[in-house]
Design goal:
Aldehyde Dehydrogenase, Chain A, domain 2; Aldehyde Dehydrogenase, Chain A, domain 1; 4-stranded parallel beta sheet; about 45% helix; 7-stranded parallel beta sheet; about 20% strand
Amino acid sequence: MADMAIASTQDADAIRAEIRAMGRAAKAATARLATTPPEAKTRALRAAAAAIRADQADILAENAKDMAFGKAKGLTPALLDRLELNPARIEAMAQGLDDIAELPDPVGAVTAEWTRPNGLRIARVRTPLGVIGVIYESRPNVTADAGALCLKAGNAVILRGGSESIHSSTRIADCLRAGLREAGLPEDAVQIVRTRDRAAVGALLTEPEFIDVIVPRGGKSLIQRVMDEARVPVFAHLEGLCHVYLHTAADPRKAQEIAWNAKMRRTGVCGSAETLLVDRAVAGVLIPPIAARLIEAGCEIRGDEVVRALVPEAVPATEQDWLTEYLDAILSIRVVDGLDAAIAHIERYGSHHTDSIVTEDQAAADAFLKRVDSAIVMHNASTQFADGGEFGMGAEIGISTGRMHARGPVGAEQLTSFKYVVRGTGQTRP
């Protein structure tokens, strides 16, 4: 199945016809993958990793085109950082494929089994989901992560990257297809939509005959469109409005290091902290040194009245600040009156993505981890660890903030469903 030539706009009917053709090819590929032995998938992933390393120069050249497009489009520095590739990031991408290749194959794994009094033996067995549509923005490395994880779980994938990353993503997808070809597997297990036209997104969202699940990765407007228009199941990845809460029993050194890392390691990732909550009892001790370090690193501080009294450089925080995923070097800081107030703030303003408490009080930590209803809750750790690779999954296709099927980092295991296999000896039901 040949993908579309790269284009900015196309006839909407032609795009829908092409998406359907890609869907049919993907369905045919899933039939092959469902019975593909783990060793063949491992060979394909290793070959794809080798292709990415061998094609580094070409990938960087394609990324340069995307960076020029992104700058002309007026992307923020944080979004340009997400878009940019360099030798280290390309090697990390290839290493991620190697890591996924080494993971246990989830397909066919027995997650539970039991025997009934009548002698029936029942097992719950992992199976592929089918054809997965992944719609994403900016980050071309998602192409490698999503393609590899879908393949590991026996799924075919149709990738629709952002308009700003189309050249990089296409070249990376070509490497994945080369790996499949070398392993004797259907290349159409990985396909990429090669047009910037937004009609392709609508076509993917409304083809339940060919697409089994949609995974969106991007900003609030993209996620909202997917949720509004999709006629297929969606692994919801809402915005990463992440919090770090410095409890009254926080270790000052840990508090400073975690607050800085959670915000400034990479400001454009979904696990970047957007709001820092600090107990009033320790605000005067913790906030000034933390804010000073952040400001020195180029971070803007937005705070409430207490924060502004402690940090003269801080600007007033508005109600909208507590609701904003900056994805930039901006941090809102609020002083709260204890654990209950911190949890209430997170419940009201958070996005159920990742939230962390810093404290040496185990009872407070346990209460926070139990009561905060987010996909990932942390104790004494940076929210930047909200990543499938850091969880030992090799990579992730996204962070699901929903409550159905998959939650948190979506790795190969989460890209499977299951069926019940029942073995009998001639039993009939009375």
